[in-house]
Amino acid sequence: MELCEADVGIWGDGEFSFVELANKMERKEEWLNVSNLIWYANGEWHRNPLSIFPLANLPPMSRSWINNRRYFCEGGQAGIETKRGCPGHCIYCADPVAKGKITRIRPPKVVVDELEKLLQQGVDYVHTCDSEFNLPEWHAFEICKEIIRRNLGDRLHWYAYCSPFSFSADLAKLMRRAGCVGINFGVDNGDEKMLKRLKRNFTPDDILNVVRSCKEVGIAVMLDLLLGSPGETKKSIIRTIELVKRVCPEQVGVALGVRVYPGTELLNLVTQDALKDGLVGGSNPLEPLFFIEPKIMPFAFELLDELIGDDGRFFFFNPSKPTRNYNYNANQLLVDAIRKGHRGAYWDILRKLDKTDSHIES
Do 92 and 153 fall within a single domain? Predict the structure, then answer.
């Protein structure tokens, strides 16, 4: 708030509090008591109590306030939210901090109503914005069933973020029938001990099973790795890359270094004296703070380069080899592909490009 020199802000959900704030201001009523409000007065910041609102109380999404078609043509996909909040305990994740630890679902009918409105505007590639689409799994089932009931599966192409936990072969089949063409599993690591340290609730065998289930029904898979968190070793990195090569997903994103967010367990952990040497960046509030396990710092980039080799499925940024960077935020190859008509999740667009001219430039 201080960095952007704002006087008033809203933390948590904004859809309800912002409307309440605007209405009170318009009626010239006292508005400093609006829930979720952050405001500055008498030389200090004040934070009103946080209210968690049921998403079922949101009005129907018309998707008509902005030019969705233009965003789609220039961005390659649209986003939709089926739920908000995450009950997970991952030590690094800011989602429970920002969106709450309780999963709040949107009614499946309302979600698919919104999808239909996007289709009517010619937007037929969509990515879910949930923390994990399949948590809870029953909700994912109901959304897929509603899409199938309306015969939208052949017209709609969609992608999702999912967890290997509570992802069954039956769900994979239903998602494919409903038009799902790709899933990004944030698996983080392939070493069982590291998964426990990160407080992930799945195992390497679960990773094997979910990729197999998706491949059997024709859903492309992207696995995202988050390497370098506390306790990472040379052996755990080798086990992770070996596991990923064995499960054979279509694409693999490799991040070396973990972003440290305020309010997370990771922040408390890495600021202890024994791990402070692993902190990188964060010298001012505008600079992100990262952590890399100090014991692997001297060799991690070179080790990953050696393990990955020329395997084109891996997206990995080594600072000494910037042409391999797949940064979505500054990727001219991706921009050009979307301009030429490619659509879908960015990892899938890059996957489908002709490998002969796919030197990914930052």
Answer: yes
Question: Does residue 52 lie within any of the structural domains?
Answer: no
- How does DSSP assign 293-309, residue by residue? -GGGTTTHHHHHHHHHT
Question: Percentage of residues in the chain with pLDDT exceeding 90?
Answer: 82
Domain count, the chain: 2
Region 141-158: what's the mean pLDDT?
Answer: 98
Co-location of 43 and 118 in the same domain: no
Query: What is the distance between the alpha carbons of residues 319 and 341, in angstroms, rounded to a whole number?
Result: 31
Residue 1 belongs to a domain: no
> Which residues lie below 8 Å from residue 115, measured CB to CB, with a gap of 6+?
80, 126, 147, 152, 156
User: Based on the domain organization, do 40 and 63 belong to the same domain?
Assistant: no
- Between vectors from CA 121 to CA 115 and to CA 125, what angle results, nearest 5°? 55
pLDDT at position 327 is 78
Q: Which one, of 147, 199, 136, 132, lies nearest residue 177 by Cα? A: 147
Residue 362 lies in a domain: no
Q: Is 321 helix (H, G, I), strand (E, B) or coil?
A: strand
Length of the chain: 362
Give the burial string for 9-24 (b: 16+ CB within 10 Å, else e): ebeebeebbeebbeee
CATH number, domain of 167, equals 3.80.30.20
- Cβ(257)–Cβ(280) below 8 Å: yes
Three-state SS for 191?
coil
Residues 112 and 157 in one domain: yes
Query: One-letter amino acid identity for 2?
Result: E
Residues 35 and 110 grouped into a single domain = no
Confidence of residue 60 (pLDDT cuts 50, 70, 90): confident
Q: In terms of residue numbers, what domain contains 149?
A: 57-357
Cα end-to-end distance, the chain, whole Å: 31
**Number of neighbours of residue 344 by Cβ within 10 angstroms:** 23
Residue 288, pLDDT > 50, answer yes
CA dihedral 228, 234, 237, 242 (to 10 degrees): 170
Do 64 and 201 have their domain in common? yes
Q: What is the pTM of this model?
A: 0.93
